[in-house]
Design a protein that fits this description.
By secondary structure, the protein is an all-alpha fold. The chain has 14 helices and no strands. The chain has one domain: MFS general substrate transporter like domains (Growth Hormone, Chain: A, Up-down Bundle). The longest helix has 30 residues, at 112-141. It is globular and about 60 Å long.
């Protein structure tokens, strides 16, 4: 009996001689760009106008970000195994629809509890369906070129964080209102998440008779052993991964880095505005940070494909430490811009490293479940950074203490990364 034919690559992919994994990368890059209204850098340009109109404190506004981060961490753990089994297509589409609805609601909100609920739901969808979905999808389609492939998602995400505040949110806030800006972002998310997610996202290359990186299925080595899959990559199960020191060290490092990074993303703009920078500078300031992250991402990916990803992550963490020290003293626009470049370099490196490290250390077969558990553990701690910084500012009318705390935390993350040696799979695989 003849086996059923394998499904063809999506008809909307026009480059039939190009490995469809690059179609996954292209769609994921656009999707990553469009999820940024639920990220701290975009929220940061809304903090002051919302506070002035509705009278909410920085801590109250930061609470919405923390709620979304906490719920996103729990959602990532819940959805991880489903992404491994069924793929990311429906998760991304449903998340895009949820973000669109949340942004439309934000344009109409009046009470702080509405802000917490709407932003919390939208950020949860972004972290679980979109962020986890795109990272797992691309990680499944590439092995030897994984760093470079993942770097394009980083470029999309950071380009969105650079361009959306500068070219969309800030101009609309100044010309009309923050409500008009949120309404425009709702339209953008539907067009750039839901549509490409449905048309192009697919599960694994094996579903189409291929191997990662574009090798034909016939190229699989029949002598593979030690837990290697058809591509030759060794994959750990979730139970195996969590018994390794590397899993816990990488989780601790991720926890600490995003504890500091997400807080700075939310509060860097208000901090320079509090020191006298004009509101018109806010969009440019975010553009410097995230533009640098976007431009540097491909270089980080190529570096982590050529050298060990652990050392790339260590370098990115060291740059973040230097940037945090600079931010403490950034009391003028040139110093703020210099901070933005250094912090953007560190951010770009960690956006790539967080995916490449887990995928390279533990393989792709159970990547969703492994990343989901790591995000569940690190999410609550990471979520406290933004609200801690807001509380310190409300109490002291200064961010200096918060930034000192983040500097010390990043130094601890640097040690954790340096100690995270690659694990060996039980039974001889590496």
């Amino acid at each position: 009996m003849r086996p059923p034919p394998r499904p063809a690559a999506p008809a909307f992919w026009p480059f039939k001689r190009v490995f469809f994994g690059w179609g996954i990368v292209s769609a994921s890059t656009v999707i990553a760009f469009a999820q940024v209204p639920m990220y701290g850098t975009v929220l940061s340009v809304f903090v002051t106008p919302i506070s002035e109109e509705l009278g909410w404190t920085r801590a109250e506004i930061s609470a919405a970000f923390a709620i979304g981060s906490l719920c996103g961490a729990a959602g990532a753990a819940a959805i991880g195994s489903s992404l491994d089994r069924y793929g990311a297509r429906m998760a991304i589409v449903i998340a895009g629809l949820t973000i669109t609805a949340a942004l439309a609601g934000l344009a109409l909100m009046q009470e702080v509890w509405q802000f917490w609920a709407l932003f919390g739901v939208g950020r949860t969808a972004a972290l679980t369906g979109v962020h986890m979905g795109t990272m797992v999808a691309v990680g499944n389609w590439f092995v030897s070129k994984r760093g470079r492939a993942v770097s394009f998602i980083s470029i999309g995400l950071r380009a969105g964080q650079a361009l959306v505040p500068l070219a969309v949110a800030t101009p609309l806030i100044i010309a009309y209102s923050w409500r008009h800006a949120y309404a425009a972002l709702a339209v953008m998310t539907f067009a750039l998440i839901v549509i490409p997610g449905w048309l192009f996202i697919r599960r694994r290359p094996e579903d189409y008779g291929m191997l990662p990186d574009g090798a034909p299925a016939s190229a699989a080595d029949p002598r593979r052993a030690g837990g290697a899959d058809a591509s030759g990559e060794v994959s750990f199960t979730l139970a195996e991964a969590r018994r390794t020191p590397a899993f816990w060290l990488l989780t601790v490092a991720t926890m600490i880095v995003f504890f500091a990074q997400t807080a700075v993303n939310v509060h860097a703009v208000p901090s320079v505005e509090a020191r006298g920078a004009p509101r018109e500078f806010s969009g440019a300031f975010v553009f410097i940070i995230m533009g640098t992250a976007a431009v540097s991402a491909y270089g980080w990916g190529a570096l982590m494909d050529k050298f060990h990803a652990r050392w790339g992550a260590a370098l990115a963490t060291a740059l973040s430490c230097v940037a945090m020290a600079m931010l403490i003293f950034a009391d003028n626009i040139p110093m703020a811009a210099a901070f933005g470049v250094v912090f953007g370099l560190g951010t770009g490196g960690w956006t790539v490293a967080q995916v490449v490290l887990f995928a390279n250390y533990f393989g792709r077969r159970h990547l969703g479940a492994i990343r989901g558990l790591s995000q569940l553990l690190s999410g609550p701690f990471a979520a406290t950074g933004a609200i801690l910084a807001g509380w310190i500012y409300d109490a002291r009318e200064s961010y200096t203490l918060a930034f000192l705390i983040f500097l010390v935390a990043l130094l601890a993350a640097l040690f954790a990364v340096a100690l995270a040696k690659p694990p060996r799979k039980p039974g001889g695989g590496a």
